[in-house]
Amino acid sequence: MSRIGKRPVALPSGVTANVSGQTVEVKGPKGTRSFTATDDVTLKLEDGAISVTPRGLSKRSRQQWGMSRSMVQNLVTGVSEGFKKELEIQGVGYRAQMQGNTLKLALGYSHDVNFEVPQGVTVTAPKQTEIVVEGIDQQLVGQVAANIREWRAPEPYKGKGIRYKGEFIFRKEGKKK
């Protein structure tokens, strides 16, 4: 039994869902998202909650059971609250600023890095050393944050680079004489 899969996904107030076959469409104050499940699970909308049940006892249907329920939960969370990733920049001279739809990053290279923000995601730089990525699609928000972090991942000796807020970087000791 999947502990995650057997719990129904409750719909908060202001969020409506429509289940047609294997597709769930969720509408909320922040937008509309949809997810198409595989044929290994059955989706039902009853009593203001979406329940996911496996079809059969095969290993694949049990795998899809928990995953499909998590995907539906992410749709509901995305359209009601949204997702947010916060990044911190550490290093002398490292900074970020938004110019229109482009994030300009000064990361110690001989040139500034221009990062084009994809549609469906909002990127803001409240301070020069902070970047906030927000959106209704958890996968897209995480991928954009990872792509920004990839430009200068934190290094273990001085800790310089772009890190997630609250991320611990294991520090190493430098060479000894």
From TrEMBL:
Any one GO cellular component localisation term in the record: ribosome
Domain Large ribosomal subunit protein uL6 alpha-beta: 12-82, 91-164
UniProt entry tagged with the keyword Acyltransferase: no
Pfam families: Ribosomal_L6
Keywords per UniProt: Ribonucleoprotein, Ribosomal protein, RNA-binding, rRNA-binding
Keyword Mitochondrion attached: no
Signal peptide (UniProt feature, chain positions): none
Subunit structure: Part of the 50S ribosomal subunit.
The protein's role, per its UniProt record: This protein binds to the 23S rRNA, and is important in its secondary structure. It is located near the subunit interface in the base of the L7/L12 stalk, and near the tRNA binding site of the peptidyltransferase center.
Family of the protein in this entry: Belongs to the universal ribosomal protein uL6 family.
Protein name per its UniProtKB record: Large ribosomal subunit protein uL6
